[in-house]
Design brief:
It contains nine helices and 25 strands. With 505 residues, the chain is α+β, with helices and mostly antiparallel strands. Among the domains are: 144 residues, Sandwich (Immunoglobulin-like), CATH 2.60.40.1610; 128 residues, Jelly Rolls. It has a six-stranded mixed β-sheet. Helix 2 packs across helix 6 and helix 3 packs across helix 5. The chain is globular and about 90 Å long.
Length: 505
């Protein structure tokens, strides 16, 4: 009897639930009942990639709700990752500079050029790189800049602030830029090139130029002129400390694992709450990264974000190595050379729409945001072509040898160059060669009789081609950038093009 007393109520309960469900599935028609147009209602049972989702007349059960929220958190984690690579990148840049000294008074100079011991995203082997970190509080800062440089100021969220030097308002003559911090209401004195930043932290980078193969003149000019100081100290500016980091280990690259989110959080906490795109800040807030609040995900959320970081990393690498949209390719359907600026916009806009894949691709692969990088200027500036794959669509193998053919009359008014990069770090490939790059000014470079060039890339130089060879490492992948400095019209109208990298052996 005891068993019957227990079973009967349970059975009756199930019957009531079943009857209720049936009633909800087939409600009676009432006086005001109308037909619901197709596509509005959601079925009570859905078979999805999340598994079976159960909804009683549109309301999910607890198990379904948990599946949905786990998926939502994962989706937002992946999107937060892809849409904030630039923030993590700037975190890495700041740390890499401050490793050598405090902000505002320390400048890093690659006095004998940057070599492969430095972990920077896709630098070249010919420019004289110099950089500093600007950290403002409640007053503007003056930056005194040298002549004949290409200089950029980008904020802590990697948005463009200003150019100086050849592409800036000083037109390459040097000058004084006054950077205004967020929220500043004071007077702005005359006599400065004025730039407004939405963040307190700012990356200041400039490239000098070699003189007949010698970087010393650019370095000495910077040491003589470059200064950063608060406006209140304009009459007695403090001295700068210049650190030669050529040949030294220097890491400016962000993490790709769960630590990525911790780095992004550091930047968010350091800056005003309205200093970045609200949509990106909203994505970050949805996963627990919010100004003024600790980032302490529980075990469930940390597990989700760990997986989101892994998927985000794989996605970023895919966007760079194998873009799926023709707009990323210089020669769609017939070549592997790609660009992260398909719309020709430093804001990654194409007909008013943000090309999200382009933004993720660029910030994963490179640094420095300025309109000057994207403008099509015949005979001025530079153009960049990226290759991760050979002519057959296969990833480069460090144990094999490849050849790139450059037809006669390479359309570069100044010079052209190749540089190899490590697929993992996107920094210069570390081999026995100090500089994993070559350009048309390199001693020993051989030109073919018709004016063309053949560049060989592999573990050993082909016999007699040592001057045209870049070394790779067996068991290690790589990618490369082909650069044109002072690109000419045949590059833009595509009447001249480099060959795809061809497997030789």
């Amino acid at each position: 009897m005891a068993i019957k007393r227990f079973i009967l109520p349970v059975l009756n309960g199930f019957m009531l639930i079943s009857l209720a469900s049936a009633a909800m599935a087939n409600p009676p028609k009432m006086k005001m009942t109308t037909d619901v147009p197709p596509g509005i209602a959601t079925p009570d049972k859905l078979e999805t990639r999340l598994g079976t989702l159960n909804l009683a007349d549109g309301v999910p059960d607890e198990e379904t709700a948990q599946k949905v929220y786990d998926n939502l958190d994962f989706q937002r984690g992946v999107q937060a990752y892809l849409n904030s690579i630039q923030i993590a990148s700037m975190y890495g840049m700041r740390q890499g500079i401050l490793d050598f000294g405090p902000a505002n008074t320390t400048a890093l100079l690659f006095e004998t050029l940057m070599d492969s011991k430095a972990l920077w995203l896709t630098p070249n082997t010919t420019s004289v790189y110099m950089c500093a970190w600007l950290e403002m509080k409640d007053e503007p800062y003056v930056i005194e800049t040298p002549p004949n440089v290409l200089g950029i100021i980008d904020d802590h969220f990697f948005e463009y602030v200003a150019d100086f030097g050849n592409a800036g308002p000083d037109k390459g003559k040097g000058g004084k830029t006054l950077v205004i911090p967020p929220g500043y209401k004071g007077d702005i004195p005359a006599g400065y090139h004025v730039a407004h930043s939405k963040t307190y932290g700012n990356w200041v980078i400039w490239r000098g130029f070699q003189v007949e193969g010698n970087p010393a003149p650019a370095v000495e000019t910077t040491k003589k002129i470059f200064r950063m100081y608060p406006l209140s100290q304009k009459d007695n500016p403090p001295e700068m400390t210049f650190v030669n980091v050529s040949g030294k280990f220097n890491n400016t690259i962000h993490r790709m694992d769960y630590g990525f989110f911790e780095e992004v959080n550091e930047v968010v906490q350091a800056e005003p709450g309205d200093s970045a795109n609200p949509e990106i800040l909203g994505l970050l807030a949805s996963i627990g990264i919010k100004k003024g609040q600790p980032f302490k995900p529980d075990a469930r959320m940390k597990k989700i974000l760990t997986e989101a970081a892994d998927v985000g990393a794989a996605t970023a690498r895919t966007l760079a190595a194998r873009p799926r949209d023709d707009m990323f390719y210089f020669y769609p359907g017939e070549g592997v050379w790609s660009t992260p600026f398909p719309g020709g916009s430093h804001e990654f806009l194409d007909d008013g729409a943000r090309v999200l894949d382009a933004r993720s691709y660029f910030h994963f692969y490179a640094t420095g945001i300025t309109p000057a990088m994207t403008k099509k200027m015949v005979g001025k500036g530079s153009q960049y072509a990226v290759a991760y794959l050979d002519a057959n669509g296969n990833a480069f193998d460090g144990s094999k040898t490849y050849k790139v053919h450059l037809p006669p009359n390479v359309p570069a008014k100044d010079f052209w160059s190749f540089t190899l990069y490590d697929n993992q770090t996107r920094a210069m490939l570390q081999t026995d060669q100090q500089f994993p790059g070559l350009d048309n000014n390199k001693k020993g470079l051989q030109q073919n009789e018709d004016g063309s060039y053949d560049v060989y890339i592999g573990p050993k130089a082909p016999a007699g081609k040592e001057g045209n060879w870049l070394q790779t490492v067996p068991g290690k992948g790589w990618n490369m950038l082909f650069r044109l400095y002072g690109p000419l019209q045949p590059w833009f109208d595509k009447t001249w093009k480099p060959s795809d990298p061809e497997l030789v052996k």
